Amino acid sequence: MRIKNTGYIVGLCAIQAMGASSSFFVPRQITTDPTFELGLNYFQHMYREDVDTDKFYSDITANIVYQNSTNEEELARYFLKDNKCSLAVRENGTGDLGSLWFQTIAASGASYSSTLTLFPERHVWGIVPAWYASWKKFWANVTTSLIGVEHDANLSETSIINQGTTSGFETLTNYFKNTDATYGPNYGRIDSVERDKVGLDDIQCKIGYTPVKRDNGHLGFYLVGTIPTGRDRSAVNMFAPVVGSKNGSFGLGAYGDVELLKRDRVRMSFMSDLKYRYVFSHHEMRSFDLTNNGDWSRYLLVVTNASRLDSQPAINYLTCSADIAPRSTIDFWNALHIAWHTHWNFETGYVFWWRQSEKITTGSCCTITDNGVGIFDMAGALAGSAVSAGTANITMSAAGTNVATSDASFTTIQTSDLNLCSGAHPSSWSHKIYGAFAYDNDWGKVGFGGSYEFAAHKALEQWGLWGNISVAF
């Protein structure tokens, strides 16, 4: 594909097109989740009866966290063509995927057929340490996470009829693993291998001021930023585990609480925190579909003008390093806290999370190849007169009724043909509820909590458990 780097193409994917999938998923980070930062900790910081609040106070908190994804069918729809939970593979062009594009060809006189499904799973475990310090009306907080992440796409192919026997791949499963032939995909691979990644998540830093500081309530604001700790992300495997990012962020927040009830042995408070961050751009590898060729067109085959029969996976050319800007994100935390018999604490909370759709910019950094390629003309090749097939889509076959028209002359794919939204994570939001309890003393506290996050739109649905311990000094 010949790329003309004379300008930039910008993708603003405010709303993902109906029925369009994405090639890359970005999970919500644990470090910036208020559940672990503020849950059980906010009340301890603001209502310290046995500490002079005008003197220096500090504590170290650690949450031992485990999270597990649920509703895997919905996550599969995020990745699969047309947002389906399974795909019909048909060599004759009557299915969701044409097997010929995946170099899976049955013996002469037969036709390949199967059903392709995904069942993506994500598991996270680790520790979320935090340091908090306050002096008079000023305070600071630093939070990060040392976590391990395990992802498994759980690709499966069933109801296989007439598996491939000619030069190429026996099944689509083998194609996506890229183990049986030379010309398989270098990117966008899918398999059923559990992949682990362990590392330090981004570091969140806050500096705050509490102008209203009373025995029965507080009101304040803060500046917040994150320091990136991740490595460059690769597009080799779809749904690969990710820890940290290369994107720094900066923002601000406001918080407040009010005491609803105070009796001899019971104290009830409502607490709230609203945090906004703008996440800056950084370049990373992404794979893109073609705008006029539809969903999963990145898995078409392409050829050069000089070798119109020597086809290769288009995704090897449609993957490049682009500038990815996650942009705005909001966390809105609300909780009801009950302190009972001085030392026992019970808390229930709700978190609304929203992240803006990614903005993708390609320019001089997105150099896909110096050789122009066009979409493989399967029908023309069968007839002995291959040109290119600029209107082809991933459902088509080489013969029958669902066949792409041959171009009048060889047509190369241009940078402007890229559907940048296909490589972006769309806008997403979720609702999270949690419950927790703790026992505190002069030295700190020990607690336990559980949560469930409902994926309202393009987010990860998951449940979690954590243990909380803090030491004050």
Identify the notable features of this structure and list them briefly.
single chain, 473 residues, mainly beta, four-stranded antiparallel sheet, 5 helices, 26 strands, 7% helix
Q: Secondary-structure blueprint of this entry?
A:
Elements: E1 9-12, H1 34-38, H2 41-46, E2 57-69, H3 72-79, E3 86-90, E4 113-117, E5 121-135, E6 138-143, E7 146-152, E8 156-161, H4 172-177, E9 195-200, E10 203-214, E11 217-227, E12 249-262, E13 266-279, E14 282-287, E15 289-290, E16 301-304, E17 312-313, E18 319-325, E19 327-340, E20 344-355, E21 359-362, E22 373-375, H5 378-383, E23 418-419, E24 428-441, E25 444-457, E26 462-472
Antiparallel strand pairs: 1-21, 2-5, 2-26, 3-4, 4-8, 5-6, 5-7, 6-10, 7-9, 10-11, 11-12, 12-13, 13-19, 14-18, 15-23, 16-17, 16-22, 18-21, 19-20, 20-24, 24-25, 25-26
Compact overview of the structure:
The protein is mainly beta. 7% of the residues lie in helices and 45% in strands.
Structural class: mainly beta
**Largest sheet report:** 12 strands, antiparallel, barrel
Number of helices: 5
Instruction: Determine the N-to-C terminus distance.
Output: 62 Å
